[in-house]
Amino acid sequence: MNRVPPAAEPVAGKPSRREQILAAAAELFARHGFHGVGIDDIGSAVGISGPALYRHFRSKDAMLGEMLTSISEVLLDGGQARVDAASGPEKTLGDLVRFHVDFALDNPALITVQERNLGNLTDPDRRKVRALQRRYVETWVEVIRAAVPAAGEPTARAAAHAVFGLINSTPHSRHLDRDQMADLLTGMAMAALVQLSDRVH
């Protein structure tokens, strides 16, 4: 499956036509909503006719399914890579936080589409995306519990979702430049997570 490459992890060379279509669709879905965008709108954004899109995707639903599956795969793979590469629980947690911050800031349209459109997926795509998302959450839960041993599983799970909420809201409220925002979000998330031990005693 072709993935939507996040700006945080660029691929060499020109994006494929499928990647161009998915990127354009993500921007349009984020701006106008999935149901507010037609095939002709997406085709116009990439300079081809709407019907010509069917050479690449069988339907708009298929575009959304590939888009959200790709996002979930990129997050899971990237999160696991940080776990595998880092040394020490707190460093692993910091790397995981920064990875998610970078993804959210560099891919605001994808984050918006992911948050708003799970219900618009076909049942098979929804099950696949939910399974990938659960695995990503489990990665966070394990890392949080390793870094903050006093945090039980329910607390670690709640903390992971709270951090996602903080970070994923940034496409709607970017008042600083990109690097300043990344540092702010990373610092806020880490401050909250490392202080969990004080809150669970």
UniProtKB/TrEMBL annotation:
<feature type="domain" description="HTH tetR-type">
    <location>
        <begin position="15"/>
        <end position="75"/>
    </location>
</feature>
<dbReference type="InterPro" id="IPR009057">
    <property type="entry name" value="Homeodomain-like_sf"/>
</dbReference>
<dbReference type="InterPro" id="IPR050109">
    <property type="entry name" value="HTH-type_TetR-like_transc_reg"/>
</dbReference>
<keyword id="KW-0804">Transcription</keyword>
<dbReference type="GO" id="GO:0003700">
    <property type="term" value="F:DNA-binding transcription factor activity"/>
</dbReference>
<dbReference type="Pfam" id="PF00440">
    <property type="entry name" value="TetR_N"/>
</dbReference>
<dbReference type="Pfam" id="PF17932">
    <property type="entry name" value="TetR_C_24"/>
</dbReference>
<feature type="DNA-binding region" description="H-T-H motif">
    <location>
        <begin position="38"/>
        <end position="57"/>
    </location>
</feature>
<dbReference type="GO" id="GO:0045892">
    <property type="term" value="P:negative regulation of DNA-templated transcription"/>
</dbReference>
<protein>
    <submittedName>
        <fullName>DNA-binding transcriptional regulator, AcrR family</fullName>
    </submittedName>
</protein>
<keyword id="KW-0238">DNA-binding</keyword>
<dbReference type="GO" id="GO:0000976">
    <property type="term" value="F:transcription cis-regulatory region binding"/>
</dbReference>
<dbReference type="InterPro" id="IPR036271">
    <property type="entry name" value="Tet_transcr_reg_TetR-rel_C_sf"/>
</dbReference>
<dbReference type="InterPro" id="IPR001647">
    <property type="entry name" value="HTH_TetR"/>
</dbReference>
<keyword id="KW-0805">Transcription regulation</keyword>
<dbReference type="InterPro" id="IPR041490">
    <property type="entry name" value="KstR2_TetR_C"/>
</dbReference>
